[in-house]
Known about the structure:
The chain is mostly beta strands and 250 residues long. Helix content is 2%, strand content 44%. It has one helix at 127-130, and strands spanning 4-8, 25-31, 42-43, 47-49, 52-59, 67-74, 85-94, 104-113, 118-126, 143-150, 164-168, 179-180, 184-186, 189-196, 206-211, 224-231, 241-249. Strands 3, 4, 5, 6 and 9 form a 5-stranded antiparallel β-sheet that branches. Strand 13 and strand 14 (189-196) form a beta hairpin.
Amino acid sequence: MVKTANSVDAPKVDDPPKVDDRPSERFTWTIENFSKLTRKKVYSDVFLVGGYKWRVLIFPKGNNSDHLSVYLDVADFATLPYGWSKNIQLSLAVVNQVNSDFTIRKDTQHRFNARTKDWGFTSFMPLSDLYDPSKGYLLNDTFMVEADVAGATCHMNSLLQTLFTWTIENFSRLTDKMLWSDVFFVGGCKWRVLIYPKGNNTDHLSLYLDAADSITLPDGWNRHAQFSLAMVNQIHSESTIRKGNSFASL
């Protein structure tokens, strides 16, 4: 059996992350029989933006507040690798179903990570307005909330650096032509290392950095990264082979 192990040194962040300028993606959640909800908090179905799973979280009677509370939540945070983060521009709206001019919309920007997996507004709108049938926010006891998520693709910061180490046991017994490491996060982006143990149509070991979530990213995406790759000499570290300072648009 081939065993692999991975380790990631915590990233250093010196500058605030940048948000992508791409158009936002909108998720609309409709809840019927809203006034009959008995749970303190309710989650929407999961939706996907930028390779991340999100959901809307509401407190129908307020989160220790006399206001409706609305948040965006990272749905799969418990399964994400160490060091994950995602910086986004977020807009949450409670739709006025009688007159759209009175739809209440609030905007914010936030870097989601393991410490703050949800973000939004505890005092979004007064409960008295929400439950007043003449106001238009509950039509036939139906409630609608929208979430616009932008900047779900990521940028590498020039002052952000992480060391990922991949250990493979029983390497000489590998039979696969190619092998990927576990996914790791740098700058809110998902990465993995790809190797060809017997070479990629060459008599040399082939080693690459791979954008792990490329198939889930929108058309036209790109990432710019400066990186180095190294094969560690476990006896004499000075003989470690390192090729780096490469600047790539992935």
